[in-house]
Amino acid sequence: MTTAAVGAPGSPRRYLHSLWLLSARDLRVRYATSALGYLWSVLDPLVMSAIYWFVFTQVFQRTVGHEPYIVFLITALLPWVWFNSSVSDFTKAFSKDARLVRSTAIPRSIWVNRIVLSKGIEFLCSLPVLALFAIVTGAPVGWGILWFPLAVFLQTVLLVGLGLLVAPLCVLYTDLERTTRLILRALFYASPVIYGVSDLPGVFEQLAAFNPLSGIFTMYRAAFFPETWDTFVVVVGALMSFGFLALGLWVFSRLERPVLKEL
Q1: Is 88 part of a structural domain of the chain?
Q2: Cys bridge to 212: 38, 122, 208, 237, which one at CB 3.0-4.6 A?
Q3: Does residue 2 fall inside a structural domain?
């Protein structure tokens, strides 16, 4: 994409058009040389789900989660892949296209938002897999399905906030790229993916509420597992998501100029 394609700052319509072009470019580049194409967006969570399902149902006696466990896993693993891949890409959001970032006058937040959008599209494209497993295993769909769009919205808010925070910091402090990978590995087990918030003992259940992913995953799972609903966890997760957005906007506004000098 050329500088002209991105254009100068202007109306929200121009910004959204440029955002779509950049996100579409990312998707085309990602799958252009791939024989499996779209399947890669679902293969990773499927393999992870199969491994955890086998370990916790065939090897060990499972004491966490709900039946059907494979659906319980996928409802959190799919949004986790969206979260994990987005945050990983945030660490090089500016350095990857440094020339365009420096030369274009469009708001630089677009380099973060394009990652959220392209990864979000992959997430939405993977949802038929969840529907298929729900049908095959006979998982009932309840009123909680109405929370699903709001969960997508809150995860988008959280990711935009984290992107505006992580992306500029990784330009100024290059070691943060490796640190972020380590944090993501730990965060996977600190988030209710292979277990539910209510499965945690004592004080850990209360602490889990302050992980915004806990509330977001609870909203996703409410469609199939209404018994996992926890209003406190959801409300805290929503507040934390908007808190990260506010923090990201504040940090980004102060670091944008130093980042441009560093690139």
Answers
A1: yes
A2: 237
A3: no
